[in-house]
Write a structure and sequence with these properties.
With 240 residues, the chain is an alpha/beta fold. The chain is 32% helix and 21% strand. Helix 6 links the parallel strand 5 and strand 6. Helix 1 packs parallel to helix 2, helix 3 packs across helix 4 and helix 3 crosses helix 5.
Length: 240
């Protein structure tokens, strides 16, 4: 059994709640697939905890933005403001660590691919919103399951042997002849209308999208003290 996490976005309250949930479930193999920072108020603390608790760490577009590896003009005004704030508070060791995280990981034994955005051109940070996008991306990984984040919207996309694509937003049994693209959602800033932290649990027979409550108000207070944009502060309570 293992868990896949994404998009913590410097939200320490959410990350700690998820890690506590994992301990209760006795899950020790944890794969993080990018965007440790951005938006939230505690980047250094989140990176430290992720490095301590996760077996695998990937990089996301906000991480690259903070490292200067992605042009921050690519981001909207709120995300850009948060990245600029993060650049001023993150320490050198964590900048170095983010810059060294890979963009993609293949686990042959588990027959899975891990990537932040999409298996097609992962370093260009494409989004996968539509089933048409999923259909194209099934051709860019060889394993049985590809885990993604980036959009902050959890969903399981199953490709049947017939070629038909079906979706599920809670969990499903893993079929031996099917392939899957699974968006694990976001720890620190879900955008599917549910403000609870989202991550995925997988065992040999099933996959589950798990949701965990955390102290949203505490995160909002920290963001307010740091002068982060009001829009970012309000949205985490709405899950949008």
């Amino acid at each position: 059994m293992y868990a896949v996490l994404s998009d913590v976005h410097s939200n320490l309250e959410a990350l700690k709640s998820v890690l506590e949930d994992l301990k209760k479930r006795d899950i020790h193999d944890i794969y993080f697939i990018g965007d440790a920072v951005g938006y939230g108020p505690e980047p250094n603390e989140c990176i430290k905890l992720l490095k301590t608790e996760c077996n695998i760490l990937l990089v996301g577009n906000h991480d690259w933005g903070v490292c200067g590896l992605t042009d921050i003009r690519y981001f909207n005004e709120y995300a850009r403001a948060a990245i600029e704030w993060t650049m001023n508070v993150i320490n050198k060791d964590n900048i170095k660590a983010l810059g060294e995280f890979p963009v993609r990981c293949e686990l042959k034994k588990e027959d899975i691919t891990l990537v932040h955005s999409t298996p097609y051109e992962p370093e260009k940070w494409h989004y996968l919103f539509r089933l048409h996008d999923a259909e194209e991306n099934f051709g860019y990984f060889d394993g049985r399951i590809c885990f993604i984040g980036h959009s902050h919207k959890p969903v399981i996309i199953e490709k049947l042997t017939s070629g038909e694509l079906i979706t599920d937003k809670k969990g499903t049994n893993i079929k031996p002849d099917s392939r899957y693209i699974i968006n694990v959602g976001s720890i620190g800033q879900p955008r599917d209308g549910d403000p609870r932290a989202s991550y995925v649990i997988v065992d040999d027979e099933k996959v589950e999208i798990a949701r965990v409550k955390y102290n949203i108000e505490a995160t909002q207070k920290k963001m307010t003290l740091e002068g982060l944009p009001l829009f970012l502060i309000e949205r985490i309570a709405l899950g949008i």
